[in-house]
Amino acid sequence: MLSRSAGTLAEGFDAIEFSGPGPAVVAVSGGSDSLALLFLLKARLERTGQAKPVIAVTVDHGLRAESAREAAWTGAVCRDHGIAHETLTWTGPKPDAGIQAAARTARYDLLGRFARRAGADFVLIGHTLDDQRETVLMRSWRGEGSGLAGIAPATFARADGNGVWFVRPLLGTRRTSLREYLSGNGIKWIDDPSNLRADFERVRARNLLKILAPDDPMPVRLDAMRHDAAAGRLALGRRAARLLETHVREVTPGLFLLPDALLGDADREAVTHVLRIAIAFAGGSAHLPPLDRARALAERAAAEKRFRTTIARVLVDRRDAGAWLLREARNIGAGKDDGTFDNRYVAAGGAEMRLPDPAEVARRAAGLAGTGAPASLVRAALARQPFATAGTTARRLLHPWARLVPLVDLEPANAIAFIAGTGKVAPPPYKGPIERLIQT
C-alpha cells in the first residue's frame, strides 16, 4: 500500500465501470505518467475493496537499444509491488517512414490482442492534461477544426475485426502532480530520451508550454478551445448519425443511395457531415474528404438533379431519387499481403480477393434486379467489388473508423455499422453521459 494519498488524482477513475469479471490491464512504459496511473489504480481498487487483478503490460517497440532493458526494469518495479507484468514485443520489419504512426498502431494491436486474451473489457493508458494541451496546440498550428477536440477520454481500437476500449483516466491531471505523487511514495521512473528531440513537433509544443508564465492565458484558451470543439463534434456526430440511419442505405453491394429527402434536409451542417462520412465509407478512406469540397457538393446536390462527379475515390451520380455513391473505376487496388483489398475489405483467413470478370458481374447483377437501383450503376458497383476465394468471406472495413473510434465519434461510427449490417461498437466502460466525460 502506498503511503502518500492519491487525493484528487484518482477522480478520473470515478466514471469508469470496473465491475466486469476480467482483469484491469494497464499500459505501462516505465515513464512517470503510466507508472502513476498503475499505482493510482491499484490504490483505488484496494481502497474500494474491489478484488480485481491488475496486469501491467509494457510494449517493447525495439526502436532503441535500451528498450528491452527498460521493459525489464519496469517489470521489476511492478513485481516489487505485487503487480503482474507482461512485456509485448513489436517484431518484424519496421517502416523507413512514418515510424511513430506505425509504432502507435502496433502498440494498439499488441495491447488490444493481449486484453482480449486476458478477458479484459478495456486497457487503461496514461495520457495527461499536458498531453492534451500539447495535442490541441499542435492541431491549432495546423488549423484543424474537429481535431481541436483533442485526445478522446476513450478510444475503441479494432484489430482483426475485434476491438477493445482504451481508456484515459488522467486527462484532467497535470504531469507535475503525478510526479509529486510518485516521488512522495519513493517510486522512480524512466525519462524517454525522445522527449528531448526538438525535431518532434510534440516536443516543440511541450517546450513552449513549459516556459509560459504561471498567469499566461494560453493553457486556459487551449482548454476552452478543446471543450468547444469536443462538444460541437459530439453534437454534429449525433445529428449526422440520425440522418445516416434514417436515410442512407446500401441498395446493392458497393452502391449507396443518399435520397433526395436527405439532400434537402434543413440541417445543412449535418447533411455535409453525412456526405463526408458516406464518401469515406464507400471509397475506403481513413480520412473524411475536405470539408470545403464536401460542403460545395452537398449544396450542388440539393440544387441540381442531374450531374456526375468524383471525390476521394468515389463516383457521385446525382439522379432524381438522390445521389448514388460507388467506388470510382480508376486505381482500384488489388489484394495486399496483409489480406486487404483496395482498403475496403479484408479476407477472412488470408483468402485471396480479386475483381470479378464480366460474366460474374452479369450473373450477380441479374440476381439483383428489382432493387430500384439503376442497372448501369449496379453493374458498375459490382465490377468494383472484390470476389473472395470460394468458401471464404470478406469483412468490410468500416471507414473512416475502421481502426480507431474516438468516444466523440461513437454514434456516427455505429451508424456506419448499421448501414453495413455489422455489429456495433461495444458500449464504452463508463457511467454517466458522454458530455460530462469530454469536458474533463
Folded structure, characterized:
The structure is a single chain. The chain is of the alpha+beta class and 440 residues long. The chain has two domains: 7-226 and 432-438, HUPs (Rossmann fold, 3-Layer(aba) Sandwich); 248-402, no CATH class. Helices cover 41% and strands 17% of the residues. It has 14 helices and 17 strands. The protein has helices spanning 32-48, 67-80, 99-118, 129-142, 175-184, 201-210, 218-247, 260-263, 268-283, 291-303, 358-366, 375-383, 410-420, 434-438; strands at 24-27, 54-60, 84-89, 122-124, 154-159, 162-167, 249-252, 255-259, 307-311, 314-319, 322-327, 340-341, 345-347, 353-354, 387-388, 394-396, 404-406. The strands form four sheets. Strands 3-2-1-4-6-5-17 form a seven-stranded mixed beta sheet, with helices on both faces. A five-stranded antiparallel beta sheet has the order 7-8-11-10-9. A three-stranded antiparallel beta sheet has the order 12-13-16, with no helix packed on it. Strand 1 (24-27), helix 1 and strand 2 form a beta-alpha-beta unit. Helix 7 packs parallel to helix 13. The longest helix has 30 residues, at 218-247. The protein is globular, with a radius of gyration of 24 Å. The two termini are 28 Å apart. The model has no long low-confidence stretch (mean pLDDT 91).
